[in-house]
Amino acid sequence: MKVYDGQGETESEIKSEQIKVGIAEYDVTKNGAVLTTSGLGSCIGVALYDDTAPVSGLVHVMLPSADDMEDGNSAKFADTGVETLIEELEATGGDRENMVAKIAGGSDMLDFSESGSGIGQRNVEQVKETLEAYDIPIVGEDVGGNHGRSIKLKSSTGDLVVKSANKESTVL
């Protein structure tokens, strides 16, 4: 994880910077960079934004819970990934009381069960539960369904652009 503070860069360089967040990874920026991730099927992208700092971050989680965590990668799981992102935002100057969340993903693309409780739905539930435990409101979401998504967090504004395979881009 890197924290981008924008020191030594011109304003135009900062605005054009894009940072790719991979599966089971997270990143935090203070300089208004655009954080992106793709391949959100059952995975969830959680974007946190504190415009008073200003600082923002994005985590790409794969699974609901780290109960049986073997690899030590907290960003892989909805519960520990969200917690880690919150802690990193706070370490970078963010204040939990000013943070808002936007989430996307959580599709059940390959779920053929009748219960509807596949990984995607369980990821959504765990992300929401963890954010609620930290009193961070979700102010925008594009979750569920049976299609993949890619997202861009425009850190300078907090806008989350969601591109889906089956519909036009939306801005949360």
Kindly state the percentage of residues in helix.
Answer: 10-25%
Annotation field: number of helices: 3
Number of strands: 11
Distance between the termini: 25 Å
Bin the strand percentage. 25-35%
Largest sheet: 6 strands, mixed
- Counting helices, strands and paired strands, the structural category is alpha/beta
Quick check: average pLDDT? Answer: 87
Q: Any idea how many domains? A: 1
Keywords: Chemotaxis, Hydrolase
InterPro entries: CheD-like_sf (IPR038592), Chemorcpt_Glu_NH3ase_CheD (IPR005659), Cytotoxic_necrot_fac-like_cat (IPR011324)
EC number: 3.5.1.44
Catalytic activity: L-glutaminyl-[protein] + H2O = L-glutamyl-[protein] + NH4(+)
Structure description:
- The protein has 172 residues and is an alpha/beta fold.
- It has one domain: 60s Ribosomal Protein L30, Chain: A, CATH 3.30.1330.
- It is 20% helix and 34% strand.
- It has 3 helices and 11 strands; from the N terminus they run βαβββββαβαββββ.
- Strands 1-3-6-5-7-8 form a 6-stranded mixed beta sheet, covered by helices on one side. Strands 2-4-9-10-11 form a 5-stranded mixed beta sheet, with no helix packed on it.
- Helix 2 packs parallel to helix 3.
